[in-house]
Amino acid sequence: MEFTKMHGLGNDYVYVNCFRETIDFPSEFAKRISDRHFGIGSDGLVLIGPSSAADFKMEMYNADGSAAKMCGNGIRCVGKYVYDYGLTDKTEITVETESGIKPLCLYVRNQKVEAVCVDMGAPRYNAHSIPILSEKDMIIQEPIEISGKVYRMTGISMGNPHAVVYVEDVWDYPVKAIGPVFEMHPRFPERINVEFCKVIDRSHIEMRVWERGTGETCACGTGACAAAVSSVLNDLTDEEVTVTLLGGELNVRWDRAVNRVYMTGPAARVFDGVL
């Protein structure tokens, strides 16, 4: 089976062209190939295939084999893959995901896609739709106790659930210790992605992320969008921000007039291989 390893800001996945390949048990396959010691090594598996509703379909599995509805870094790499490998010659495409159809604008240089802007759609902050168990409709700076400490979280869904918390120092924060406890807290019936953020100014935030089913990753596109939306809701930033992550920077803009979030960032191929 042929595959391609790609990443968006270090958030890396194994991509398989399912126009040509067939994977019968993708969940088990994702666990096997994601192992960084005994497999290819990745944050998960992305399958690219035909769609009856869009130009392409993206199917995604985390490193632990659980299915994911959406991945901002992953979908940018899908855009690069389908253009660079000749599956399309269009620079504006649509991709079907489990959280809806996403329009992509591909930025091409020297016949290769360097960056992609994704229309991530409308953020959802109703507690039931995220989902987060709460008596309130919106989760804005709501207290939650994790490992004996009270955090204040803002809940956002960008097709998958996010809890955004603000800390004084992002880079020295014990994400690997706190993240898994957050993820499995009983208030999150579908588990949760956690963004640990620091606001630098009205146009810049720093962020590290703990992703459900994977652990800490170098970047999370939907998480960056959730952090941007949260920062606007809390009147900490303007509608357009630069989000600095371990793997680099993303531009996120929440157009509140039309209630849509736009994310722009790079996509890169690491290597092609045969398994």
From TrEMBL:
InterPro entries: DAP_epimerase_AS (IPR018510), DAP_epimerase_DapF (IPR001653)
Positions bearing the site annotation: Could be important to modulate the pK values of the two catalytic cysteine residues: 162, 211
Binding site residues for substrate: 11, 62, 72-73, 160, 193, 211-212, 221-222
GO MF entry, a single one: diaminopimelate epimerase activity
Active site: 71, 220
Enzyme class, first EC level, given as a word: isomerase
Known function: Catalyzes the stereoinversion of LL-2,6-diaminopimelate (L,L-DAP) to meso-diaminopimelate (meso-DAP), a precursor of L-lysine and an essential component of the bacterial peptidoglycan.
Quaternary assembly: Homodimer.
Protein name listed in UniProt: Diaminopimelate epimerase
Species for this entry: Bariatricus massiliensis
Species lineage: Bacteria, Bacillati, Bacillota, Clostridia, Lachnospirales
Gene: dapF
